[in-house]
Predict the 3D structure of the following.
Amino acid sequence: MATTDVSEASGTGGGPPIQWKRINALVVGQGASMGGDFILLIAMGWTAIQLGGAGAVTTLMLAATIPRALMLIFGGAVADRFGPRHVLLRTTSARLVLLAVGTVVVHSSQSLTPLVVISLLDGLLFGLASPSAGSVIPHLATHDQLPRANSLYAMVTRVAPIIGSPLGAWMVAAGELWPALLVATVTCAISLGTLFVVTKGMEPPERTPGRSLVRSSGDGLRLLVSHPRLRWTFVAALCLDMAFGWPIDVALPLLVQENGWGVHAIGVIIAAFSTGALVSSALGAFLAHRIPLVVRFVVSGVGIAVGILLMALMPSVLTIAVTGAAVGLMTGLNGPAIVTVYQQAAPKDRMGSALATLTLASIGVGPISIALFGGLSLAIGLKLTWLVCGTVALVGPVAALLALRHPVREPAEEEPVRSAEAELPHPREKVASPVV
């Protein structure tokens, strides 16, 4: 990846269309932090099992996920009110203190309570910070360069679990939990340092009188009602996530067990999928801006849906792994495309609220998918339910096509929210000019 800024001027303000130095720094910092998070996730989960079995690890997961989802509702409004720099530096600093104190406490105490408290507070901070983190990249790249930046960021999210998960398992197996917490503390410090550099100069937005955080927290949903491009993009993401959750998390292990392939088959299939997604994300960092949006957004969605359908019918581990790799390739294109379309279509002053809604859907749809399709599989069987999931996934590219029918609104036409009662504007039929 290039390490120098592009010299050509952007369409607004004469700045570079993509600031590679800052984007690379952001990716390094967030990649280190994500790797530390996965180390900690595996280590804390295994420690919880040793301390209290399945009930303990369930308590730990709920303590992390529920506060995260709830804080996302307010995190978008906070990002729009105070700006990404203000939010990220404070939440990351608070998280650094939490992890450092947690390391000391866990070193001297072997009980579940500190782990639950750490997970609870970490989930709150993560939910508060997530929309701000998603709002940084649009400050660093123009609309036409966002696909490359988002693909590079997606590549890091693929690498982090591949590296972090086995390291976390090795660390907790070789000793105690506190070394994993210490590593997470160090990676959080790296993230804080890079965020300080990357967000330098990002001033907080002007505050709109009469807009409370409570009311602003609903802006993400209001945007879905008033902006068709956002609404259909949200539906596309929701359907693909819904269709993908149960097959990978539940159906795949059951299918492997049913065919007597052995537990190693799960690892082979997941590794093939991850490799495919990693490869396409890496290619996207260089070429995504040259690939038509309809290919990255619609065609890849069709490929994911068809791949899900085919995986249910494959007769061997090899054929499922090859199909999974193809689905991974499509996912590596589709995921960044969804985020890019959302960033391009969302009003600049409500970027955080828009991204919070998208993230909340991604986090919340997993349990719904498992509960819905898990219950259905008891009635109609494993493979037929898997085929139903593939059919649901086909709704995704249809929604993507509907989203592309509504052009991006020009930033100059976005009217600020003037009061607590102001209605959100509707997009007009014009194509947006690049915005840094």
